[in-house]
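#struct-pred

JT: dropping the chains for the assembly here, can someone run the whole complex?
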Amino acid sequence: MAFNIAVIGFFKYEGFLATNVNALLGTEAIPDLKLPLPIGISFYTLQALSYVVDVYRKEVPPQKNPLYLGMYVACFPQLIAGPIVRYKTIQDQVVGRKETLAGFADGMRLFIIGLAKKALLANTCAILATKMLSMGGPQIGAVGAWAGLIAYTFQIFFDFSGYSDMAIGLGRMMGFEYLRNFNYPYIAKSITEFWRRWHISLSTFFRDYVYIPLGGSRCSKTRNALNIAIVWAITGLWHGAAWNYVLWGVYYGALLICEKFIWGKSLGKAPAIVGHLYTIAIFVFGWSFFWITDVNTLVGFWKAMAGRYGMTGSSYMWELTAWEYWPLLLICAAASTPVAPFLKERLVARTESRKPSKIMQDGIANPRHLSTKGLATLEATPATPGRARALSTLQVIYDLALLALLLASCAAIVSGSYNPFIYFQF
Amino acid sequence: MSFREASNVCLVIVVAFFLSFPVASTMLNGAGLWLPEWLEVGNKASVLEMRNYTVLPELNKETIASGKYQAQYEKYLSDHVPMRDEVILANATLQRILIEIANSPKGYDCYPTYYESIILYTPRVQTLFRLPTVLDDKTVNTAAESLGGLQQLASDYPNTKFVIYIVQGGQYASVNPAYKYMHFATTGKDASQALMAPLYNGPSNISVLTTKCNSEQEYYSEFFHTDHHWNSKGAVSAYNAMATASGIPPLENPTRTDFPNDYLIGSYARWGLCLHEEPIFDLGGNGNELVIVNPDGTREPYTHSQWLDSTPPTRWYTFHDYFYEFLKSGSTIENDKANGSALLVSDSYGADLVPMLGSAYHNLSFVKDMHSDTKIDKSSSLRALLKQQDYDCVYIVASCNNYINQSKRSPGYFK
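RK: done, full complex below.
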């Protein structure tokens, strides 16, 4: 454990430590080595740590074959950007997985969905977010600030969940059944629920390996609150070696403490819309810590959000820029809710002349539902030839739609490398 | 095999083929195997992007360790995707449709495109405008004060004519429809007027000129739809205005040649890709007697057709690319059939004027000091240039923005 933590500590936090200690002491006591960060170190280090602890706790037998162990730690789909896969969830699959055509095809479908999320939604939202968030609060005013932050909210979700879907899809193609990493976090009705739906593999990791060993909630309220604060400070620091990330972690830690001890029960009794709006406001605002690293810029941005510079800021030229993105933001809003799987299930159920299954709704409603089965497939058991034909048609349409998504995603990626010789700026 | 199994097989085959195709076709092409032309990936240059494609990187320890090999290999793969141009154009078309849908409720007649929107697309006239540059009064006044130093310079060189041309292109065009959305007092037209004002009452050997376009139609007869530069006609208009001011013969009824070559269609605007075709013509036949003397003393004749065969193939249908791309700052253009000497200090707008001005003088010195990316010595100035040689006329040609940038980079440049 010490070795794993030392490795990530050295490569990821040496510079941060050096900068802050030197600033504190007013000397150059610790040299900043400006080390390149090994790609994916934050993820595979946690995976390795989870394996060590699980073996220690005798929750899993140790893997004697170094190749299998190496495959678990360094399996390429989730190596760089997660999800953080626990050994106990795939220990049987390491040796005994079955690669099937159906699994391969389903994995491919999920990969295409993930690619589309990343290439079409996340990358385009990134353009609007970058433009708005880098203009400065006084220029864009309240509307521009919130529009930029909402665009960033979608960017970060589709970027991350897109990568997760691609990783899970690739894993499925190789016979691995990874657990879900995002379960529609933006429909949460509280921050507690939000963190059960967002980056599930990370939050469960810190729950099982930091929070519970510290005592979890089986202690005094004060100690419980302290445990939450420690876990979230570490969570923030894990996201990046900078104070804005620590601040982000502390922000959520404080809110989780408040929900647990102060207003959680009242929130639970309030109408669902109140919970939704409350949660949306909090996580949208929270992303501002992620984006803006300079304190002065952050404060200026918050002022803009609060309307300090008016609704449109000093120039509403940005409006021309931002206006063209409203269809995209609508699509993103819809895509971040379970509208698509609900419609899919209804369509399939209608084809089969049965009632829509509650499994999908329950799976989405229950944040702890982690299976990824059915994410990208049209599940059905048609009983009559008529239903079989209808379902076949649906399958063809669905696959054609996925191919169109794949084409559009690849076109977007190729166009992103469009790099003409330009001298327009002269 | 059930239908579901069949659909799985089809999906896997199609996707696997699609994703492996770029690499496979590159390998097949490299192996010299025949491929249909539309699948060939061995093109050296991109017509759409007006650049050479990335070549395979050199594999050695240094390039691997520095990451240069990996980065260049990725660019190589991106550049060699089959039907790359068609894919980019298809994506641009889709974006344009989405932009039109997005802007229909507001009825905007101009709006930015995707991809780092600084260029505006006007569906009504199929045009691109740059986003109007907001100029505050302090910036403009400071630049005007700097430019006003020409009064003293002109007084010190009474036998030299000074012709200052302020180009109103793109984001400074007074006909830019985006101005209606601005609520800043200082716009392109105001800025150019502010820059010129200090020189109106100066010495008589100063002439101050600017673009005069009273309508979009007039503007687009002289400027590109897809870029902020003037086209050949616009360059001739500017030249004739300057010729009148400096007393050299104007260019009347220039010979125009139509080029059917696709390479010469002007639409390289990266962020617009508005797919608009420019009229393709060239002012051929001028400047064939010119000799270019490079800063190192080497001499080469200017051959007008040279740029037609250049690699990458040039997109512009004027001599713009040749003189912008290849003519070095500090060069001199010589013409034995003319008299007099002149100095041209300009940004990219001046490139089009080189053959015309070069034809009017025995020697024309060309300096790119007005480029915004030129690393200019802060101590450099027009006065230093004038000390090197006597000139009959000094032409200063640049956009509004570059006059302002110049005054920031080198406040004493015009004094």
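JT: nice. The longest strand of chain B covers residues 161-167. Chain B is about 35% helix and 15% strand.
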